[in-house]
Amino acid sequence: MELDIAVEEPWPEGDWEHLAEKALGALQRFVPELNNERLSTSLLFTSDAEVHALNREWRERDKPTNVLSFPMLKREELLALDTDGPPEMLGDIALAFETCAREAEEKSVSLQDHATHLIVHGLLHLAGHDHEISEADAEAMEALEIKTLAILAIADPYGDRIL
Questions:
Q1: Which residues in the chain come in under a pLDDT of 70?
Q2: Where are the alpha helices (H) located in the chain, listed in sequence order?
Q3: How many Å apart are CA 133 and CA 135, to the nearest integer?
Q4: pLDDT at 87
Q5: Are strands 88-96 and 2-7 parallel, antiparallel or unpaired?
Q6: DSSP-assigned beta bridge partners for residue 43
Q7: Which family does it belong to (predicted)?
Q8: What is the pLDDT of residue 70?
Q9: Could you tell me the pTM of the whole model?
């Protein structure tokens, strides 16, 4: 899968592209349907104001949030996608700087680690996983996040549970 990454102010300088590629590579170990070379995803590192506007327009929620995911394929379509054929847009992800930075500080983790977690979380949403469906779905999604982050030497963001 190809990531099309844009980093806007107020995100500080850093190798956000490399961080996102590492997050995707680790996640692909557990979510092999994301290994399809036909897929592409746009990832926008932006401001709370921009994420707030997107959240209001597309989700009818008038507030910023840490990460937004906009899938363009249903899970069934993703799982059935052949490796031969034209490019397919999996979806878009946007991360809000101020919210991410505040949450990272509150959790006493680095901005890079928290952003990595949110990228993994967003990619799982694009792959059709949803923590809002049921407690079992939430636990399954969290387990994928925890295993993926462990590969990257990032602690369990949900409280260091052992699965």
A1: 160-163
A2: 16-28, 48-59, 75-80, 97-107, 111-126, 135-151
A3: 7
A4: 97
A5: unpaired
A6: 5, 93
A7: Belongs to the endoribonuclease YbeY family.
A8: 98
A9: 0.95
So what's the pLDDT on residue 19? 98
**Is residue 9 classed exposed, middle or buried when 0-12, 13-18 and 19+ CB atoms within 10 A define those classes?**
exposed
Cα 125 to Cα 117: distance, rounded to the nearest angstrom? 13
Residue 131 annotated as binding site:
yes
**Phi and psi torsions of 161, nearest 5°:** -70, 150
| CA dist 21 → 60, 62, 155 (Å) | 30, 31, 19
For residue 10, whether the previous peptide bond is cis, meaning omega lies within 30 degrees of 0, is yes
pLDDT computed for residue 160 by the predictor: 55
Residues paired with residue 4 on neighbouring β-strands, in sequence order: 42
User: Which helix H or strand E contains 88, and what residues bound it?
Assistant: strand 88-96
What pLDDT was estimated at residue 89? 98
The answer to whether 117 is annotated as binding is no
Residue 121 assigned as binding residue: yes
**Which domains does the chain show, CATH number per domain?**
2-151 (3.40.390.30)
Q: How far, in Å, are 35, 85, 112 from residue 38 at the CA level?
A: 9, 7, 28
Q: Other CB atoms closer than 10 Å to residue 151's CB: what's the count? A: 14
